[in-house]
Description:
The complex is a heterodimer. Chain A has helices at residues 3-20, 30-51, 70-104, 107-121, 126-136, 141-148, 163-187, 191-199, 204-233, 236-241, 249-258, 266-295. By secondary structure, chain A is mainly α.
Amino acid sequence: MNQSNVASESTRTRKRVVSKGRYKFPFALIPFFIFVTFFLAWPISTVVIESFKSNSNKWTLSNYGPLFHGIYLHAFETSIRIGLITALFGVIIGGLFAFVIESYAGPRLTSILDSVAAVFANSGGVPLAFTFLASFGANAGLIKLLKSWGWDLYGSGFSIFSFTGICLVYIFFQAPLMVLIFKPALKGLRKEWKEASTSLGGSSWTYLRRIALPILFPSFVGSFLLLFAGGFSAYATARALTVGNIPLIPLIIGNLVDGNVIADKTHLGASLAIGAILIALIAMTGYIWAQRKSTQWRR
Amino acid sequence: MRKHFILGTVAAIAVAILPAVSAEASSAAINYATCTSLATCGGMDALVAAAQKEGTLNIDTVPRNWANYGALIDLYTKAFGIKINSTNPDGSSADEINAIKTAPASKKPDMYDGGITFATGNEGLFTDYKVATFNDIPATYKNPDGLWASNYAGEIVLEYPTNLPKLPTSIAGLSDAAFKGMVAIAGDPSSAQQSLMSVFAVNQAAGGTPADITKGVNWFQTMKTSGNFVTVRATPANFAAGAYKISFNWSFNCPGDITASKATGVNLQCAVPTDSHLVGTPYVAAIPKSAPHPAAARLWEELLYSQNNKGFLAETLPSTKGKSGSVIFKSLMGGQNIWVSGGAAVTESAAMAKKGVLNNPPTQFIINTPGTTVTPTPDQQTAAKAVLTTQWPTVLGN
């Protein structure tokens, strides 16, 4: 089929659609659909198929058995735990930062802080791990300085390579991300509401408790779920800081499908990936619900 | 007189035409994608000519600083004028198999160089080719039909900066309080072969046998409790950040690491631990059936397995213009000895030592103490992986 054919075909279709005033195909979104097909739908369907295949390429359910006990179940628990903990600290710290910036910073400072938050929110992975090693590692400057002041962090059981240490590192990209996604919600609080509350005799506390917090709550939940999904699935940061001592699902999937040691468990890797996708899907469904709730006040 | 003239003419014509005809016939008969040895590929002159006609060699997941590969790459390109396309140098064996399966035809790798289990599990992807020195490769680590064959292995060594207050010499000695917060491995033993072999090496030093690695795992637990073992990946960046000082490394990575870190003002040293001599399972090479440059791939394999103990490296090689392929090839340093100078244990070493063509290992980089080496069998490794998958995170987790 040549190009003019396509063009005339599409104009005709559009005319018909418009004249009937019904569904209009969004042609401008075609590049987006192509992108989603190649980078989301296709890979996911491949993983789904792989997860139901055996090494001899026959259909099987056996790849799903190991997900529910032993080390793989433990890894799911650990990943969910790290997602929940870092999301919780992320929304609290980031939320407070966002509130302070929104309330007290002038426009110029706000734009600077926005950029800073954007940089930090996207600096996860190896660079972030490197930053932390250089400042919090056993031989790092900050640790040595604290030790010279009499505070031996490592002596008291702290280690950047422990579960707590990894959580600390994650919060450094979770909190700035929270600032970025939560500020628009804070902006949505209208001055008029505060004034209306005050004129009806409400105190600041009443305003916060009866108006601001209920309105912000869905955004808060949504942000929490988004951060959870990020923390649950983070790969590069944890990989740089651990050698298999903390079993996290993304790392284990990596070992199985992309390693130098285990050659015959790619299908188990696929079924673990499906498990991870399902968990992310649950979080995202909640996020979409929260988004809808939170925007209803801004219409 | 006239008769002689005719005969002479016929003879002259025959002499002029015959070689051309036969040359044409032989080159038309050679299919470089299926020929299985130097002889059936038409000899070195024809192989070099065919490889030069292809002009390119694709290699995948081969880092230049890994086992002196950089020297081999430079030598091949300079000697034969064939460009080498290197993709995804830091990738894994699994990545390499994926590239052979899924890359577009012209971008597929011409060579597999990776773990043995990934080769034995994917024999259907490879074509049989026996290099000229095939008989010198130990039977344990080659496919009898030449689908794949081992090429080099590493020994587990300790790598450390020379300015430490105390220098480590043995694995048992690493538990000394002087090494608190200093010892690291290359990654998760369920993902990095080097780490898996490090656990075997430790197990050996702790009095275990390759059949049961529990003692090795327990040693790491003790070392973590004492704070000597840090669970950070031993990478150059993490070393620079001061996260660790001493790492378990492959011997063949020492020369590259030491040279690179010297440039940053840090003097590194490698030492074979006095209480453990662990040589890893060799890495194997294979030619994929789908190799887009089959002649160049075969020539590359011939170079990797060649045994010359004298000869040119890329820096010393004079112009090869006008020289025949076999003359050029004979003038080059053998691939096996290039690996030896990179600190690797090469697969043909026993045969080469017998012939007196095995060069000395680079003692300026690696302190060696003689001892009987141990190599875990593939079965022992499978058993170890099963133990590590469940025990490692439980024992070291928190």
